[in-house]
């Protein structure tokens, strides 16, 4: 399991950004979760990620667990 505390580096996590992220995330078998305060979202779900209402500079936690977690973390962290 890989767990990273980070901040959003893009302007906001809107529908187009969430769509790109989810499409990339769905290439991997591992579980991908994003946590913002008490809100938790599946990184493979556009709607779930939108519910986090993240904007530039907001801190959040992202975790990768399972087969391909290292590769997923390398690719997906670069998108945020």
What do you see in this structure?
This protein has a single domain, classed as HPr-like (Histidine-containing Protein, Chain: A). It has helices spanning 15-25, 46-50, 69-77; strands at 2-7, 31-36, 39-42, 59-65. Strands 1-4-2-3 form a four-stranded antiparallel beta sheet. With 80 residues, the chain is α+β, with helices and mostly antiparallel strands. It starts with a strand and ends with a helix.
CATH domain class: Alpha Beta
Helix-strand makeup class: alpha+beta
Order of helices and strands: EHEEHEH
The count of DSSP E runs of length 2 or more, i.e. the number of strands, is 4
What's the CATH superfamily, by name?
A: HPr-like
Helix content: 25-40%
The number of helical runs is 3
Number of separate structural domains: 1
- State the distance separating the first and last CA atoms: 19 Å
- Under CATH, the topology can be stated as Histidine-containing Protein, Chain: A
Strand content: 25-35%
Strand order of the largest sheet: 1-4-2-3
Mean pLDDT: 96
Main β-sheet: number of strands, strand sense, barrel status?
Answer: 4 strands, antiparallel
In the predicted model, the low-confidence regions spanning at least 5 consecutive residues are none
What is the rounded Rg?
A: 11 Å
The global form is: globular
CATH architecture descriptor text: 2-Layer Sandwich
